[in-house]
Amino acid sequence: MEIKVLEIRILNGDKPLKAFVDLLIGDMIIREWRIVKNPGQRPWIAPPQLSWKDPVDGSIKYKTVVTLPDELKGQIDFSVLTAYGKEMEKRQNGNR
């Protein structure tokens, strides 16, 4: 299945959330994938999610919007991390 990175929106700052990504997967566009990188770890890809505040205890809850087969998720991870690496390299070389 074709996977194409449509847009990477890099976030500035020291927080683990590094970027949002929009993807074309086959005939579907799925927006708001996230690139997360904790200190000392490799970046990883998280699918879009919904969040809400629990009315009982006030905690923030999360639910993944899209669940994909492992093989497809691996292809997405590879495509997104490759594109992210190229984008970060361009930015380090002064080409935004």
Radius of gyration: 15 Å
Between the first and last Cα atoms, what is the distance in angstroms?
30 Å
- Into how many domains do the coordinates divide? 1
Helix content: 10-25%
Poorly predicted tracts of residues: none
Which class do the helix and strand fractions yield? alpha+beta
Number of helices: 1
Walk across the major sheet and give the strand order: 1-2-3-4
By DSSP, the count of extended strands is 6
**Helices and strands, in N-to-C order?**
EEEEEEH
**What amount of the residues lies in strands?**
35-45%
How much is the average pLDDT? Answer: 94
Largest beta sheet, briefly? 4 strands, antiparallel
Rough shape?
A: globular
Which features characterize this protein?
two-stranded antiparallel sheet, 41% strand, alpha+beta, 96 residues, globular
